[in-house]
Amino acid sequence: MNFIKVNTYEELSSRAAAIICGQVALKPKCVLGLATGSSPLGTYEKIAEKNRAGEIDFSKVKTINLDEYVGLSGDHEQSYRYFMNNNLFKHINIDIDNTYVPNGCATDIEAECKAYDSLIEDLGGIDLQLLGIGYDGHIGFNEPDTYFEKATHMVTLDSSTIEANSRFFASRNDVPVTAITMGMGGIMSAKRVLLIANGKGKRDIIEKAFFGPITPALPASILQLHPNLTVIYSEN
Ligand code: F6R
User: If both were cysteines, with which of 17, 31, 124, 134 could 138 make a disulfide (CB 3.0 to 4.6 Å apart)?
Assistant: First the structure.
């Protein structure tokens, strides 16, 4: 594991953007696994800046996102499709048809999950997976459990996750209680994993996840077994 501690969110975002753009420069037709949440916002801004400056070309890149709320369509402001379109895709020269987010409004969620795993395979796997980490150690929406779930699946969100995500909704009751998430198989099969976290509040979970025992009770801990993992943490 390559553990990088930086002093500011700005530095975290610059480093993460440099790694992602480095991946695209190395393999212009690469597949990027992407995350939503507040952690990657700075990274996405930096990527867009580099793209605007003509430093990096996303025209051949494909992206696949980790998760989506069940019941929210892509035009719902709190859906992860909407988040990705507005915080990254519309600011870079990517072909929107090459961007994939699970369909939270699929009539058959189980079939949607299966199709998502087939899609990862059809794309030839993920070259670089970007992750954030929840206060309970979740990655994607893989919540603490008694086993690691391999396939893309539907989850019931933990109350701490609902609480944390309620800041984006009008009220806690508006937060969907279920979501589709890529499973540990998809995440662990990425050739490279980049996890970013910031804030004093994440220090404890970062320590436990990357320097403590590997356990499904703390889903991110499985990343210790990934052969190419970079963690960037800023306390501020
Ligand atoms: C989002 C996702 C989640 C977030 C996590 C941290 O696509 O997969 O696992 O990465 O909840 O969220 P923030 O960055 O808002 O602290």
Answer: 134
Does residue 160 lie within any of the structural domains?
Answer: yes
* Alpha carbon nearest to ligand 1 atom 9, residue: 140
Amino acid at 107: T
- CB 143 less than 6 A from any atom of ligand 1: no
Count of domains for the chain: 1
Q: Is residue 12 part of a domain?
A: yes
How confident is the model at residue 95, as a pLDDT?
A: 98
Q: Residue 164 is which amino acid?
A: A
Ligand 1 pocket, residue 157 CB under 6 Å: no
Please work out whether the CB of residue 66 comes within 6 Å of at least one atom of ligand 1.
yes
Tell me the best of 83, 133, 182 to mutate to test the pocket of ligand 1, counting ligand atoms within 8 Å of each CB and taking the most. Answer: 133
Give the domain CATH number at 101: 3.40.50.1360
Residue 161 to residue 227: CA distance in whole angstroms = 28
Provide the strand spans (E) within the chain: 2-6, 31-34, 62-65, 67-69, 99-100, 128-131, 153-156, 178-181, 192-198, 229-234
Q: Which residues in the chain come in under a pLDDT of 70? A: none
In a domain, 233, yes or no: no
Express each pLDDT in 135-194 by its tens digit: 999 999 999 999 999 999 999 998 988 998 899 899 999 999 999 999 999 999 999 999
In the residue annotation, 75 being an active-site residue is answered as no
User: Domain for residue 84, yes or no?
Assistant: yes
The domain in which residue 139 lies consists of 2-228
